[in-house]
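Why this split exists: single-chain examples teach little about how molecules sit against one another. For that reason, every record in the complexes split bundles all components of an assembly together and asks for one structure covering all of them. Below is a record exactly as it appears in the raw files.
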Amino acid sequence: MNAPVRPESCGIDFARERGQRAVFCGLTGIVWLHRKIQDAFFLVVGSRTCAHLIQSAAGVMIFAEPRFATAILDERDLAGLADAEDELDRVVERLIARRPDIRLLFLVGSCPSEVIKLDLSRAALRLSRRLAPVRVLSYSGSGIETTFTEGEDACLAALVPELAEAAPGEAGLLVAGALGDVVEDQFGRLFADLGIPVRFLPGRSAGAMPALAPGQPFLLAQPFLAGTARALEARGLRHLPAPFPLGEAGTTGWLRAAADAFGVSSEHFEAVTAPGRRRAATALAPHRARLAGRRVFFFPDSQLEVPLARFLSGELGAAIVEVGTPYLHRGHLAHEIAALPAGTRVVEGQSLDDQMDRARVARPDLTVCGLGLANPLEAEGLATKWSIELLFTPVQGYEQAGDLAELFARPLRRRERLEV
Amino acid sequence: MQLTLWTYEGPPHIGAMRVATAMRGLHYVLHAPQGDTYADLLFTMIERRDRRPPVTYTTFRAEDLGRDTAALFKQAVADAYDRFRPEAIIVGASCTAELIQDDPGGLARALDLPVPVIGLELPAYQKKENWGASETLYRLVRALSGARRERAADRRLCNILGPTALGFRHRDDLVEVRRILDALGLRVNVVAPLGASPADLGRLPDAAFNVVLYPEIGRAAAQYLERALGQPFCEIPPIGVGATKDFIAAVAALAGVDSAPALDAPDSRLPWYARSVDSTYLTDKRVFVFGDAAHAVALARVAAREIGFRVVGLGTYERGFAREVRAAARDHGIEALVADDYLDVEAAIQAAAPDLVLGTQMERHVAKRLGIPCAVISAPAHVQDYPARHAPLMGFEGANVLFDTLVHPLMMGLEEHLLGLFREDREFHADAAPSHLGSHAVAHRPQGEGARSGSSPQAETVVASPSEGGGKAAATATTSSIWAPDAERELKKIPFFVRGKARTNTETFARERAIPLITLETLYDAKAHFSR
């Protein structure tokens, strides 16, 4: 099933693979997005499988009056006996009546709703009119269209056209990509010290979304935002090419891209970032001893794999066996690809069994993979790091560089520790 | 469309996965979109399996829909056969693939593989997980069990039907049931699906009868075997001492052996523990039972007849087994609750005001919100209910486990007595939280929360809903206006574990009689009125 390897000029050994893919669908993004936008509700229109997936992914969080749910399609909806539009309106009205605190409602498309071609964008328009001031938007988190983190991309891309217009020159910098609040606050302070006015997308509530202006520069905080970047560019914003803010070098490169765009002097930049860089270097040093020379294999999951491989090899001295990624955006990852050791094997897509065979043959020291594979690979004697944690844990920025390294070092330390 | 926050059961193909994962030498090719592989982690994480479930997914994507998904499916079946060389293959569609109508069974048979290929029809928009497991086992048994044997089977040889992967305590139940059958001098021919291969299913006819441990999974297959092979079956889940004895009697009768060797069980401690004086305090504790039908019915019997609780609620999320649960509820003098919406269950629990909730993972959370002790007795359950230690529910050891499980969340009698005695002491003052329930502040924070924004104080405040801490204080403020100060003081002398009930009862009493001010008199009038 392997496609022939195409020679590439960018110094990576690039391959594309097709076959069985062991990845989450975009619905999973709801699990962290609903925590970020505090007055938003995510209503999946799908099947019992969709509800079961979110329940499994959200674990026990589902009981804290979460702001997500599934409108489960049944036979009547499929047979056309019930007018799907009327049914959806009924469900949404009941929901809004129950949760009057909701200001922003996302109708989230799934595989079943996409296959039967339920027009959720029209439903969103209709419901927006009816439920004002609650705004209703739609996007697809279906597995047939989106992989894991691409759900966040689809959600943010749906938000962009709705954002207000800012007066030119008043907009400052836009940072796109949901970050942990603690990380966002750290970056906010750094940008303030650099003298760069900044807004974050998404905002923490429906009323706190950034306004946009043509010509405004934007930074991507996450590598999986292809659609969001396109939507921002469609509104005239300008993407700042940069590495992603993982590790000391990534964070510095990311901040520098903004500093350059806003004409911050290099002296000032050095002065503002020096304490963070120093702390990150201190925090990383003990982990380097443990991870240097270790051979790491990435299964595809979130599109964070290429920046993480750059961080592990560049800042911790790890050797990279294979970097699997569900999708490779050459433009957004240009800095990251350039910083990978020459000849690093990057595989876009997946053929699960073939990839597991390669991992077995390579016997890496650490395998980064999803929870469906982690225990089976551990049982085969491979140390693993389950990848989903990289999305749910604050890992960006200087102050988290040590935590990020610790996530990879811990499974190795644990294997050495256990005696039985 | 049904608005759903939580679902008790997954879709039917998860049930098929539970059967496939339980077996050896069987492979399941599932026509399903990218993303449906999430189901793997139920097995690798919750049940901590050391290998991937034997499932190949086609994981088609939008671009495949424009091409030939049928060809993709056939390729996946062919590849899976080449790689895994299974003895048999089951094929089917998940909910989305059902919509694109590729007919997995027909497509797979067209490949003409040298092993049996069994097509599954699992209507994802009508049926659920347990039905899917039952149907899959039935289809496998029908396809693979072969014909009735010429020679009469050894009466002491039986099959066990029902245990699956991801079953609630199935692993350990099986150990206990085998122990009972050993004591009766019976031998087990095939256990299915747990641990069986397709070839093992071909040996099913060698047994004289079948033992169904979990009716929601094994009944359909047992009924088929009864019709096709003339094998009678016994369907009494041996959960609790009484049910275990009934089970032993039924199995012994089917095998034509004496039941005495199995009944004489020195390790059956529940009866004595329940009679010991410390258990007197358990008498008439109000218990609410909810779960899959078989577990709910069995646990209600244990609670009422073996521990001495009063069953004030009994229900199931399995509509297909509602009849049995309704009948059992009538025995307890109550109306059964048949519901798969957890909000309905929560409302019923609130209305019943139990002292103990026995339920699923979901009821555990509901009980936590309401500050009621709880034990998990049925799937769906989280990882902690797939324990490392031996923890059966069936047989006499299972009954021992149940005694501990049902009693530990409550305070033991002596502890309860001492707390009442020293209620005026500083540590047990009116506003002290009940120690056995842990800190309320902790109870209301979702545990294991790992969302990225979870670390912010702002997010924490939102999640820690005002249901208990603030909510109860507010409720007290609004209702205390009708309490006279001396009555209020007296109320605080009542131990915390019955104080809430005393307050509610007194207020109900006062409201019904239009008494504007609750005095000491009213308090004790109400107490007399509600005494049981």
